[in-house]
Amino acid sequence: MKMYLVAVTVLVFVSAPNATEAQGNLVVNGGFDFNAAGWIITNVLGSGYESTKGNPPGDVALDSLSPSLSTDPTASQTITSLTPGTTYVVSGDYRNITDRGGGSPTDFSFGVSIDGVLLFEAAQQTPNNWRNFNFLYTATASSALLSLSAQINGTGVSYAIDNIAMDVPEPSSLWLMGVGGIASAMFFRNRRTACQHTKHHCSCTQVHGEPPAAP
Description:
CATH class of the domain at 24-171: Mainly Beta
Strand content: 25-35%
CATH architecture of the domain at 24-171: Sandwich
Shape: globular
Radius of gyration: 17 Å
Order of helices and strands: HEEEEEEEEEEHE
Helix content: 10-25%
């Protein structure tokens, strides 16, 4: 039964990005192909833009040499043309770069928020390959501030980001995500933990609104 529930959840996260591509991305320059125009980038080394790195090349490195609780490296953009009450899929790619020190390596060090509400978190992972995040967001106004931050929670782990998108999913994908949410809830209830910590790293992510991982 547990294997079946995990399979459903994986199906949801694979299907959602494919379905949203046809709807149109509301994020301006989410691929960072030539620059970081359209974004406000703060507390980073230089401009944060990297032309030779990315997935494919062209990304933003959220990295500060002196991380602190009040100066998280952040890339943000105000998303407009939202329809209140409409559900969107927010997605993107991220990878951890280096640990500048501070906090535990198993702490959540990367986060995605909308209007200051944290909706996705991740800890550094080994190997530090590109990984995808996606979650549902229901608009409450015609615009919203999307922010991606590294070195959060007092940690020093920096991240690169690429391919940021916000789309309206196909109805079939919403149904799949709903089924996946139910399956995830049942799985978490049975297992009582979503993380597998080791001595060296944590392969852990959390979408807020799901049952939280047990400590």
